[in-house]
């Protein structure tokens, strides 16, 4: 497999920063070099205004990426930031891929991922790479078994 570079934004909660390094190494070992534009402890964001953070810091980073990876851990579903990031990526027509954290045994995923996600996969480099490349569009439990996204009550416009 040739080494492919992919511009991604990894949506996550900050306590999962270490897991992002594991994820990028997992993909790198399979030949995908991930350039991650997300904010993490290596590149902290010291701004305090949510509007400023969204419009001036997060939006350009999401817009730059071709794909959004959503790192799923138990805290992810309650993050307003993660849901906002997914909605922003959807509005920009990005591929949105959920990835269960290594060793996950399942938890609720952010509502926006159920609504706008293209795939949700376990800790499996080949499936993650296929999903990032748009070649795999299934929702899976952490063990790799197929599951359906939760049904979302759609609000009429």
UniProtKB/TrEMBL annotation:
InterPro entries: ThsB__TIR-like_domain, ThsB_TIR-like_sf. Residues 9-102 form the Thoeris protein ThsB TIR-like domain. Signal peptide: none annotated. This is TIR domain-containing protein. It comes from Aquicoccus porphyridii.
């Amino acid at each position: 497999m040739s080494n492919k570079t992919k511009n991604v934004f990894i949506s996550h909660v900050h306590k999962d920063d270490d897991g992002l390094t594991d994820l990028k190494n997992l993909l790198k070992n399979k030949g995908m070099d991930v350039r991650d534009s997300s904010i993490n402890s290596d590149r902290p964001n010291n701004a305090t205004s949510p509007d400023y953070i969204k419009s001036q810091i997060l939006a350009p980073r999401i817009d730059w990426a071709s794909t959004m990876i959503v790192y799923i851990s138990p805290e992810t579903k309650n993050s307003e930031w993660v849901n906002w990031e997914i909605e922003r990526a959807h509005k920009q027509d990005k591929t949105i891929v959920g990835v269960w954290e290594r060793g996950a045994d399942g938890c609720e995923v952010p509502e926006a991922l159920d609504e706008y996600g293209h795939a949700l996969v376990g800790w499996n480099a080949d499936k993650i790479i296929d999903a990032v490349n748009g070649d795999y569009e299934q929702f899976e439990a952490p063990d790799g078994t197929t599951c359906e996204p939760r049904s979302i009550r759609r609000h009429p416009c």
